[in-house]
Structure formats: structure tokens, C-alpha cells
Amino acid sequence: MEQLDIKSQTLSELKKTVEDLSEKPFRAKQIYEWIHKKQADSFGEMTNLSVSLREKLERKASLVSLKVLDVQTSRLDGTQKYLFALPDGNMVESVLMKYHHGNSVCISSQVGCRMGCRFCASAIGGWTRNLRPSEMLDQVYKIQKLSKERVSNVVVMGTGEPLDNYDSLVRFIRMLSDEKGLHISQRNITVSTCGIVPRIYELADEDLQITLAISLHASTQEKREKLMPIAKKYSIDEVLSACRYYFQKTGRRLTFEYSLVGGENDSQEDAEELARLIKGLNCHVNLIPVNPIKERNYVQSDKKVIENFQNKLEKYQINVTIRREMGRDIDGACGQLRKRYLDKREDS
């Protein structure tokens, strides 16, 4: 019989589990606190539970605890990249970025990715499986424990397409922001999507206060299709209509992620087209100098080209910033560290 994934259970679900074990309901709150506040890695650590209850939990449930395979630390800015092993042997990456306003953790939502964006290392090798809420949560918990510093912001922007793992994502957000757990404000949680239109509408109706970041990466349908296969299924106009609905329902300003690829989407005409496209939307544009990867022939735009692109958007009163490049001296781009490990495994 498959064991219960107890770290993915809400407090009400955990109460039912405890009752099924013929234990008093208050035990559920104790267990929940051990898992989500104290971030216990085993039932044995839960010292205010009876030995018999801990033994029951060992038999009936599993407590997901990711194993650290590698940690890379940037000498430039202290950014740390973690490679974690999941209970089934698959691997995911997470990143800790330290800012003046607090520590931000970027987590993965899937093992691999099926979206196939042309400039992204995460898509190489395709999709393996979705992560469970427990596996998403434990990336945050492990980094907080290892760094011994409070995590204040979480970004679901690592490997995978979060809206392609929708149910686990929403449960993860609710549990991460739960006052009985780590209690990270939903306003400090950002979810990035390449634009799965039906799920954007669903997310808008969830009554959450997260920030939605849309990976736009082009200002025309033709160019977007070239860079992002998902654009053939959902047009740029459909994505923007969903964005307008999201803002209307949540009142949350949208972020548009725009990776600048040299000679592909970084001209002054591209900037003008982008400004026209998003005019009137309460939004912010995040320009991202693309991380070159050896499997693709895309290159990063010149610094002057990036600055000119920013200036052109500002001329049209578009709120825009250039993303600060963090951890550039380590395997910084999504999927690079995991891919290096997989390649090493295949060669040995």
C-alpha cells in the first residue's frame, strides 16, 4: 500500500489522518507544526509525540525530505544554486538569491519541462513528471534550514511550467502562505508562466494575491512562435486577454518577462511593438539578458542594445527594469546544473 504524502496534506486533511490512526485531533496541529514550522526531516524528530504515534506514522506515511546533491555559491554576489535529489532519484534545482530587501528562493515545479522554449536549458530532455506540493515546499524549507536565514520571497520560475502542474501549484501556494506554516505573504510569491491561457483564467478565480509573471519574450505572434512552441496553441492576443482578466479579478499588477536574444527580438522596432501591445495594462516589464547555453545558438544582446530597448519602452511610459544578473559565475540558467549531472551520469 502506498504511503500517505503527509507533507502535502492540509491541516484539515491531517486531522482526518490522525483520527484514522485512532489518535486525538490535537496531535494533527503538533505534527503540522513540526513539518511546516520546524521543518522536521523525520518523524523521529517529533519529540512531543508518543513513540507509538511516531511508529504509526512511519508505517502509514512518508515525510518527503529532499537530499542535497550539490551547492554552488557565487563569488560575485553570494547567490547559491542547489541541486536536490527527490525520493525517486530524480533531480531538481533551486536558487537562493540575497537582496537588501530579503532572501528570495526560486524553485522548480516539474522534473524537466514539456514547453520546449528554444533558449531554455530546462526544456532539453523534455518532461519527466510533476512535483508534488511536498517536493515544492521542501525546496524552500531545505534552503531556509541550510542557509539559517529567513526566506521572505518565493518565485516559482525554476525548471518546469507551473501552470502545467496546476493543482499542486495552488496547494503549494496556500500551504506556503498558511499562518500555521512558514506564513510567507502571498504578495511575496511570484508564479511565472509561458502562457497557458485556460489556467490563467482559473488562477484569476482562485482568490490569491500572488504576482503573475508572463514569459512573453516577443512582441509579435510570428516571433513568439519561433521562440516558444506554446504560442502556436495560445496566441499572443489570447494571452493578453487572459492577463487583462487576471488584473480585473485580482487587482495585482502583472509582470512581463522578456528575454533579450541577440538579433532575434531586441530591435528598436521590437521595443515599439511591445509598447503598443501592452499599452494600458497595469504592468511591469522585466528585461532579461538571455543566458547562453551550448545546445542553442542564441546569444545575449549587447549591453548597449539592452539599454536602448529599455529607453525605448520608457519613452512610451512603460514601467521597465533590466534584471540584475545573479550567480553568473555558476550554472545560473534554469536546468544547467541538473543537465550537467545527467550528462555526467550518462558518460559514466
How would you portray this structure in words?
- InterPro entries: Aldolase_TIM (IPR013785), Elp3/MiaA/NifB-like_rSAM (IPR006638), Methyltransferase_A (IPR040072), RlmN_N (IPR048641), RNA_MTrfase_RlmN (IPR027492), rRNA_lsu_MTrfase_RlmN/Cfr (IPR004383), rSAM (IPR007197), rSAM_sf (IPR058240).
- S-adenosyl-L-methionine binds at residues 160-161, 192, 215-217, 291.
- This protein is an alpha/beta fold.
- The protein has 11 helices and 14 strands.
- It has helices spanning 11-20, 26-36, 51-60, 133-147, 166-176, 197-204, 221-227, 236-250, 268-278, 303-315, 336-347, and strands at 4-5, 61-62, 67-73, 80-85, 91-99, 102-107, 110-112, 127-130, 151-156, 189-193, 211-215, 254-260, 283-289, 320-322.
- Helix 1 crosses helix 2, helix 4 (133-147) packs across helix 5 (166-176) and helix 6 (197-204) packs parallel to helix 8 (236-250).
- The mean pLDDT is 92.
Question: What's this, in brief?
Answer:
The chain contains 11 helices and 14 strands.
Largest sheet report:
10 strands, mixed
Shape descriptor reads: globular
Low-confidence stretches: none
Order of strands across the widest beta sheet?
3-4-5-6-9-10-11-12-13-14
Strand content: 15-25%
Order of helices and strands: EHHHEEEEEEEHEHEHEHHEHEHEH
Average pLDDT works out at 92
Alpha carbon gyration radius: 21 Å
The end-to-end span amounts to 35 Å
User: Count of helices?
Assistant: 11
Q: Structural class, please?
A: alpha/beta
The helix fraction, in percent, is: 25-40%
Strands, total number: 14
EC number: 2.1.1.192
Active site: 93, 334
Organism: Candidatus Blautia stercoripullorum
GO molecular function, one term: tRNA (adenine(37)-C2)-methyltransferase activity
